[in-house]
Amino acid sequence: MTRRPGKSGKDVLVVLFQEVQSLDVTGPVEVFTGAGLSVGDPGAYRVTTASLDGAPVRTFSGLTLVPDHALAGAPVPHTLLVPGGQGTRAPDARLIDWLRAHAPSAQRLLSVCTGAMLLAEAGLLNGRRATTHWAYSDKLARDHPEVEVDAGPIYIRDGHVATSAGVTAGIDLALALVEEDLGRDTALHVARNLVVFLRRPGNQAQFSAQLSAQTAQREPLREVQRWIAEHPDDDLSVPALAERARLSPRHFARAFRAETGVTPGRYVEQVRLEQARRLLEDTARNVEEVSRACGYGTPEAMRRAFVKALGSAPAEYRRRFRPALSH
């Protein structure tokens, strides 16, 4: 493999294989391509695809993708992206050999979803923190004990290696890299065009509070779940929520936990924390305003919740994700 000389911008090579997950490929590709168009420089990211022998591959959903190269003839990329899919279950040994031999030459090595399985099989995640789709995290940890698997975050960056969770998390990771390379405004422009959030931080859980808990079976309890999400600054005590569900507090608390898997208090904590993180990441509201909007009442109450759950105070959390708002 030879590096292209004398060109600005970043080469991004996406590895293709049979039964790849199509969104793992197209999501990041749309982000990188859109970023170049946004800044008026289509060469900001030069995206190419390659399969083992250069032949078309059939995705798990039945789409056919035609690669630009065979892997053997592909140039060394700045960024190498390995998607996931059903094809990672029994990968071609030649693909693992190629990754083991050539992936270390890339300045950035990325995986989406179960693409982490391929990186791990090639020994590229040894001694690193990594994530993958929540449904496969146990398998990754079991098959590769030398990898420090964390099933919680939507993506993890460990040095020049970044692994992401299922499907849309690849878009989040790509947006984070665009923001790093070309600035927040460019990443925001791309996100708006794709109608996605900018940006879920890597340490955000793969499940939102609403998805982490089960949806209640009974409509009164489902309505309470919706109310909590839409009114985090309201009175969300058990008696108030029980009255909304037209149940006694004791019956409500027992039924809510039985049907959602968490206590009402824990569910409220998760919703408020998630909402506060979003406001700190995506708005210019100060900490006091955010604490009121999310039902904490005082900045100190929100600080305690952040330190307990995230290990950092709200101001420090904002500095990590929105440094411009911290000055």
TrEMBL record:
Q: Which SMART domains match?
A: HTH_ARAC (SM00342)
Family matches, as Pfam families? DJ-1_PfpI, HTH_18
| Record key words, sorted | Transcription, Transcription regulation
Q: Report what the protein is called.
A: GlxA family transcriptional regulator
Give the PROSITE patterns listed for this entry.
Answer: HTH_ARAC_FAMILY_2 (PS01124)
Start and end of every HTH araC/xylS-type domain? 222-320
- InterPro entries xref list: Class_I_gatase-like (IPR029062), DJ-1/PfpI (IPR002818), Homeodomain-like_sf (IPR009057), HTH_AraC (IPR018060), INH-QAR (IPR052158)
Does Transcription regulation count among this protein's keywords? yes
